[in-house]
Amino acid sequence: MSDIIQLLPDHVANQIAAGEVVQRPASIVKELLENAIDADASKIELIIRDAGKNLIQVVDDGKGMSETDARMAFERHATSKIKGTEDIFKISTKGFRGEALASIAAVSQVELRTKQNDAKIGTNIYIEGGVFQFQDPIQTVEGSNFLVKNLFYNVPARRKFLKNNNVEFRHVIDEFQRVALAHENLEFSLFHDDEAVFRLRKGSQMQRIVDVFGRKLQPQLIPIKEDIIWCKLHGFVAKPEGAKKSRGEQFLFVNGRYFRSPYFNKAVQEAFEGLLLPGYVPTFFLYLEMDPEKIDVNIHPQKTEVKFEDEHLIFALLRSTIKRSLGIYNVSPSLDFDKDPEMDAMMNKPFPSKGNGGGGVIKMPEIIVDKDYNPFIEERNVRPEEIQNLTEMYHQNMTAEPSKINLFEDEDFDEDLMRLPNGYWLFNKGDVTLMLDLGRMHRLVVSENNKTSRKNNINVNPNSHALLFSLEYHMNEIEKSKYNSFKKFLPELGFDMKIAHESVLRIDALPEGLKETQAMKFLENLFEILEYKTEEEFMQFYLNQWNKMHSKSRFDFIYKKDAEQVIKDFTALGFPEFLPDGKRCFYEVPFNDFKNKF
């Protein structure tokens, strides 16, 4: 029987390795930015075309490479970061395994122009599909200039799985932000299709966060700081009003490296216990500094996971430090550990007498409660015959036939509707009694009315009302990118808005039905739900948000006339039991089960 195991050619092996390192354009962005940082660059430019599918270019003013190093950098497992096995466990740089450039070159056309600080001339290398083409001397500036063109041009199956440009570019922005937030002492720029997206100057951590996410976040940030022997923690958390339903603005860094950790996220969430609405998560930017030998960054191909030697201690450190900061800034109540212990002793000391009266002891006031008091029992004697009459009336009511009133013919709801203290309503419908969630029923009515309007080519909100004073919404760069993707839909929906200057969105008119007080929250929801969604889906998301904003909750229905109208509208839809998302609109009250309780 012949042998069947063989060595793969280098270009095939490189393409397979590229599958781990290069998942999309954002993967290349991460690797090239980190290489520029390792080269001690102080200024880094990222230039993108077609969301990185056709061009990813990173220009830095770092140390550059010699002619030999430039050629060796594209060989597999060639690296300047480690020399022995022991070096793997004390990594202080970003890239170190020597796989990235070889993998990138295997699935694209790569050009490198580089020059060392003390060199008179630089070098230019061109590699196509992992095959070396040429290396020539060139006149160029100090530093490195990487150009990655036509990603996956030689692997069409991989290229077709890339998402549209909006989605891919948002992944690029994610990677850019993670690197930029970890290195506030460096200058970063991002250009997409010749348009400047970010121009980040050097500054403090607070300045970098505000430059990336907008000025509106600054008043919400609370500083976090703890310095112990084996670990330093610093950064910021946002106040509860800065919490979101998405996990977009949650950043953890260790030694300048971004990483993901659901376990540490839980520590932050627990620190906010009791302060956030259900379903909301806190916004935070937290930085850990510790001995590199105490962590392992080599457990994930994209190096986004980190293994800690003492993760339980770090969990406790995060939770306690954040809790303390929230208390210091009066976001949550905190215990007063500085209370004078002599105060308690004073409470039991005798106080001097005044006049002829004797002295006494200070005592806390006592509250006397009559545990037998019942507000529903009148202070009078109840005769036995009255108890007998009440008992007979109860049995008659329980055994009586249920009423069969046709509500919509007689239009008499008085006998058939009753509001409960928890916001639900009891409703006699034929032979059964239903418990209604009028909020969910109203949401479905609003949604179906909007669908009908759109089927008849009628705009949901065709009219708009001009504002006496314009509103201003301060966008961050991600929101600005999203706005540009869906702004073409806004005029027909009744909005009149435009970018006035820099990243300030000026709003001059709103659609009918949208109040000025609702406008900012409505826009925030639109920007949030469009994360990694295509612009074609915008209208559906818009309608969902519109329906939510114009739907009432069950607690909003207090008067019977409002409840009657919702029930009539809901009946016209066929009285469906469930919403499209599977939530129940009503529940049949099992009165027969109640009999067994007595």
From TrEMBL:
Coiled coil: none annotated. Residues 209-327 form the DNA mismatch repair protein S5 domain. Signal peptide: none annotated. It comes from the Bacteria. The keyword Membrane does not apply. Keywords: DNA damage, DNA repair, Endonuclease, Hydrolase, Nuclease. This protein is involved in the repair of mismatches in DNA. It is required for dam-dependent methyl-directed DNA mismatch repair. May act as a 'molecular matchmaker', a protein that promotes the formation of a stable complex between two or more DNA-binding proteins in an ATP-dependent manner without itself being part of a final effector complex. Belongs to the DNA mismatch repair MutL/HexB family. This is DNA mismatch repair protein MutL. It comes from Chryseobacterium herbae. The lineage of its organism: Bacteria, Pseudomonadati, Bacteroidota, Flavobacteriia, Flavobacteriales.
